[in-house]
């Protein structure tokens, strides 16, 4: 049978309303690419290539200055992430570098990371501030994110993370730094419309539950929904506070209690796991199976940042979720696409190949099935990436 007859027969066999939708879609595809062949139900074309929606990476810190390679080697030599942070390394190390670097230079460094993740199949990304920790530093980061939004076709959401760590001079005076965030940073950020979400590092030794509640409440007054770092190293009932404050997502979750799982059930809050972070700093993986068996959804993101995850590769995240967290390839791909889109508030337009959504596609090299994506971890199986209808 000729290919066009095969296509007609295939479409005729679909139930309504799918049949009408496919007809419309196929007509449009032929207008743009007259020689195009239909992608068949097994998901492969004649050469064995498959098509997927692009990744939605709902948690990154990819705007930063310099790197922290020395801390990487310090960890190899036996120091923990916590010990390095207590010596003035960690987030404060990146904050020092960021405040010493010009906005132009930060933009130039960050755009290379953005271009790299687009090539790796990411079609939407959330980027946080949080390495400024001063009014000027935080504004500088958010302006860089704004400039990236303006100059690249990829969907970008900006999150204000002034509450990432207490700067040295505020170590003994937390309330003064929280006042700075609430009374100086937030009004300026809101007046320049620089952020979509608000975040805080809710963790022992960083922001307490009460301090994070203050930050979330202040953010909400400016229309910024919370997306919170929580339960990375310890479980201190932070998830409950996030859910009660209407957080869109709670992220990290390397340590999760039964109570945390109960609180997340029937909430609108998406749990987000960051397996590359667990891999890189050797901490536990999010107990994905336990959470999903309890009926929770899960999103996967990279956490791309200079300290705990210097990688923005969502393909590696999907593979690691399968290999280390025992997620099936189907579960991991859904978690990295449609659930990631939810965790950054864009599921109406991104996260699946659906009529009315952005034409954001990954086209693979010839493969046996999509199982090969996590199976052949470390191999680049992406042939082409389309963002908003254009191959990049
Ligand atoms: O998500 N945990 C808090 N923030 C980052 C790491 C920050 C850093 O070490 O630079 C994270 O892992
Ligand atoms: Fe993070």
Which key phrases capture this entry?
12 strands, TIM Barrel, four-stranded antiparallel β-sheet, alpha/beta, eight-stranded parallel β-sheet, binds N-(iminomethyl)-L-glutamic acid, binds fe (iii) ion, 392 residues
Instruction: Give the number of DSSP strands.
Output: 12
CATH domain class: Alpha Beta
- Roughly what is the average pLDDT, rounded to an integer? 95
Considering DSSP H and I runs of 4 or more, what fraction of the residues is helical?
Answer: 40-55%
**CATH superfamily label:** Metal-dependent hydrolases
Radius of gyration: 22 Å
User: What is the beta-strand fraction?
Assistant: 5-15%
For the biggest sheet, the summary is: 8 strands, parallel
Listing every helix as H and every strand as E from the N terminus to the C terminus, the arrangement reads HHEEHHHHEHEHEHEHEHEHHEHHHEHEE
Number of separate domains: 1
Give the bound compounds. N-(iminomethyl)-L-glutamic acid, fe (iii) ion
The low-confidence runs, each spanning 5 or more residues with pLDDT under 50, are none
Terminus-to-terminus distance: 34 Å
